[in-house]
Hints:
The protein is mainly β. Helices cover 0% and strands 52% of the residues.
Amino acid sequence: QVQLVESGGGLVQAGGSLRLSCAASGRTYTMGWFRQAPGKEREFVATINWSTGFTGYADSVKGRFTISRDNAKNTVYLQMNSLKLEDTSVYYCAASTVVPGAYDRWGQGTQVTVSS
């Protein structure tokens, strides 16, 4: 089974930047990032198709976040710029390994905290 290992979370001031990484141990069709803030449901952030590179974003992060992939390292990144207080969440990497677009593997989550 494909394992996902995330890294890169931390504490940053509003307006700052962070880059999250997610390394996959095997082949995936689609990879994405989701986030969940305390008391809220998990929400979609961004997605990338591994073979085509097609990307998609939630409206709340469009223009600020960029998802990308490194085929050689089997790793997906989430570059987060112009961070806002409301971006504070646990960020989860997800992958679809059986059906493209249907996420069936999840990372352990990494905390991102944006301070004022």
